[in-house]
Structure formats: C-alpha cells, structure tokens
Prior knowledge:
This protein is of the alpha+beta class. It has helices at 45-59, 130-135, 137-147, 172-181, 201-211, 234-239; strands at residues 7-8, 18-21, 64-66, 76-78, 93-96, 101-107, 111-117, 122-128, 156-159, 169-171, 189-191, 196-199, 216-219, 248-253.
Amino acid sequence: MAEAVEVFRAEVLAAVPHGFLGRRGGVSTGLVAGLNVGLGAGDEDGAVQANRALAVAAVSPGARLATVYQVHSPECVVARAPWPDAERPHADALVTDQPGLLLGIVTADCAPVLLADPEAGVVGAAHAGWKGAVAGVTDQTLAAMEALGARRERISAAIGPCIAQPSYEVDAAFRDRFVANNAESAHCFAAGRADHYQFDLELYVAARLQNAGIRRVERLALDTYPAPERFFSYRRATHHNEANYGRQISLIGLA
C-alpha cells in the first residue's frame, strides 16, 4: 500500500482549509522520493504534477492551485487564479480573497508562513528564507492582505516545518548582518563553536509577525534537517553532497 500523504495543521488556522505537507506520500523516486513538488528539483514533470494534485486533494479537494516563482525576495502578489507555470510572477508571497483557490509555497528548510483573516475572507502564504525574512516578506504579505480587506488584529499566522536552531549554524558575519538591521534580533542567535552561532529562523519570523501586530502566531516547531523520512532539506542534501533535493509544499485557501 502506498504511504499516505502527511499533513500538519495549525490550531490558529482551523477556520480555513490549510496544511503544511512533508515528504511522505507521493510518487517521486530516487533522491527526491516521496511528495516532491519542486519544479526545479530535477524530477520528472509528471511526478511533480501528480504530487501537487495529491497535496491539493489532501487539503482542499477540487481547489485550484496558485504558486509563484520564488526568488528569496520580499515581494507579494495578489492571486485571482492560477498562473501557467511559465507565467508565474517572481515573488515569495501571495494573497487572495477568492474561494476555491489554494495558495502554495514550496520550501526545503526556509520557513513557510500561512496567514488568514477568516472574517474578511482573506488568506496569505509566504516563503520566508533568511533573505526574504530580513527584507520584510511577512510585512509585505500583511500589507497585501489589508489591501484586500483584512484587519491586522484579526489575522492569525502559523509557521510550518523549517530548519531549526540546533541544525542551523551560521558565521559571525551572518549574525552581524541581522543585528545591524535590528538589534533586537540578537536573541535569535545562540553561541556555537568559535566565531559561529546557531540561528533560530522560526523565532525570528515569529518575532517579525508579532512586532507587526499579529497577536496569534503558532510555531509548529518541526525541524526539516534531522528527519529525512519526513522532510526535504537543502542543507542536509548539501552536507551529504547530494546532486539535488526535493521541496515540500504548504497550502492555504478559502472554502
């Protein structure tokens, strides 16, 4: 029997269809075996599309899927309908007020952030790698949601599977870049070996959301790096000198 698709859900987003998916389930084989949804992962296009269909069916059967061409930026776009793959905008977040449309963000260590104001009928999804996070991708997403009628005090947010502090070693120059941008971010770094630190990306993203006025932020605390049977991980693949790596998807929409 084929392995079932695994879906992680957040309590703060219980009012809307959503899910953070991992590696389990799916039809891909080899290095990206499982539910690989990355178009740039060296996988067969047919397998990727089949896996995306499985992911949608696990979260909101019958919905249409909208994704963007992710470039580690703070850019956010409004989705009214899916874009053809070749026409996807270059951005790292998207929002919508359209029922039946699922927003999808792909990750492989970066933090997926799903957001919703169910009362306004507005949802958002953001890909928060360190570059996008420090540049303000979550801030841009909140502003785009407000432009569609959401209210910041009603928005809930959840941060899904991403690389965790024990697995994320960075050098002193990396830390200095963050602290120079915002001295308060120093609490996201723990001392490591000489001239190195352990960075808590999830904590940093949560703090950005809370500082922006989001009262309900849920952290799923799922580390992608040490669990190869559950999650894809760019850093793990790099450390193992693997030729490629898969991507998982996080989805949110309106019924």
